[in-house]
Write a structure and sequence with these properties.
alpha/beta, Rossmann fold, 2 domains, five-stranded parallel β-sheet, 12 helices, 14 strands, 43% helix
Length: 377
């Protein structure tokens, strides 16, 4: 009889304990196919890798993660449809993504109406400025990248430049920031050219730039494949001023696409690119090297874009560990993120800052012998 009572009590305790556990549903909107698959694939891989690791260890506070990933193909309209599906059909607790700026901007009204926390992996400053209550992001803003690039140019006495930017959400936002911040760094833009998201030949724009007197450097802002074409065309035209790119090409895919034309290109890049070259005192170095080792053992070459997913996932994880148990409390805990050392940088969120980064998130790197070389820390 005593054994029966003991067994019954143990069963009741087990039921009571397990009833307190829940499945945490994380939705992800990622460009796995299409022109920006090179961005979305490492993001998807990272999220799968981290989810498996957490669930193998018993979950977060005993709660397992259910990761639901949809491929947006980089399309804003598809992103809206899939975000609606995540919110109303899958009933997720939080969404990571989308990959692209235009796709993120397209779903923000839905996110705000549904009161669903979102951590975007896209760069446009418009995503979090002005602050939207339910929207955060882990990709550093183009404004921070422009500031880091212009600071480097100022140090090297480059004052007169030409810009060539993509007609995309990322490219347009970068163009605005290049123009807005130029005077702050004593820089004059002598020529302002555009290219379409599917364009593969920018020779005509580059000839105009080449014929503009006084240009000391060219800045290209966009994501592949366009910038790779710009690099190739510039080499074909034997343009002899330095070519700078944005952080939107900070992956080995760009080097593959541009080939020998990538040699010597300078860009603001995340520290993951040059983790081995960082000083040991850097607070990110150990985390960067651990993530790099973990990712490359499963998927091959790592990229900074996977780092945006790493940061989003772990900011959510830490928010849950600090007691978040519904959408509203999760939003609040994310906003209270302080001194989180991630792949992209050290995050400090607040009511007035839903990005949490500063220009120190970037180093300046140069492409040398098909790889990244740190040239300004």
């Amino acid at each position: 009889m005593k054994r029966f009572v003991f067994s019954l009590l143990a069963f009741v305790f087990l039921i009571s304990f397990t009833s307190n556990a829940k499945t945490i549903k994380i939705g992800a909107l990622v460009s796995i196919t299409g022109p920006t698959a090179f961005l979305g694939e490492p993001e998807r891989n990272t999220l799968k890798m981290l989810t498996q690791e957490v669930n193998t260890k018993g979950g977060i506070n005993g709660n397992k993660i259910d990761l639901i990933v949809y491929d947006t193909k980089g399309n804003p309209s598809s992103s809206v449809v899939l975000a609606r599906k995540l919110i109303y059909s899958d009933k997720v607790d939080v969404i990571i993504g989308p990959t692209r700026s235009g796709s993120t901007l397209a779903i923000i009204p839905l996110i705000e109406r549904s009161k669903t926390p979102l951590i975007s992996m896209a760069a446009s400053y418009k995503i979090t400025k002005p602050v939207k209550k339910w929207v955060f992001k882990t990709a550093p803003s183009d404004s921070l990248a422009v500031e880091r690039l212009y600071s480097y140019m100022k140090d090297h006495k480059i004052k007169n430049i030409a810009i060539i930017t993509a007609s995309t959400g990322f490219g347009s936002s970068g163009r605005e920031e290049l123009k807005r911040l130029a005077s702050k760094y004593g820089i004059t833009i002598l020529n302002d050219e555009l290219f379409g998201p599917k364009d593969t030949n920018m020779t005509s724009q580059l000839i105009k730039i080449k014929n503009t007197r006084g240009v000391q450097a060219i800045v290209c802002w966009g994501t592949n494949p366009g910038p790779a074409s710009v690099a190739k065309n510039a080499k074909e035209l034997k343009i002899d001023v330095p070519l700078f790119m944005s952080h939107g090409v900070a992956s080995k895919k760009f080097i593959e696409l541009a080939g020998s034309a990538a040699e010597g290109i300078i860009l603001p890049g995340g520290k993951l690119l040059i983790a081995n070259q960082l000083p040991n005192k850097d607070p990110q170095k150990a985390i960067l090297l651990a993530y790099k080792k973990m990712y490359e053992s499963k998927y091959g070459s790592v990229s900074t874009f996977g780092g945006h997913a790493y940061d989003a996932f772990n900011i959510i994880k830490k928010a849950i560990e600090r007691g978040a148990d519904n959408k509203a409390s999760l939003r609040n805990k994310i906003e209270q993120t302080k001194n989180f050392v991630g792949i992209t940088g050290v995050f400090n969120m607040s009511k007035k800052n839903h990005e949490g980064l500063d220009p120190s998130a970037f180093s300046v790197v140069e492409i040398k012998n098909g790889n990244w070389k740190l040239i300004a820390y």
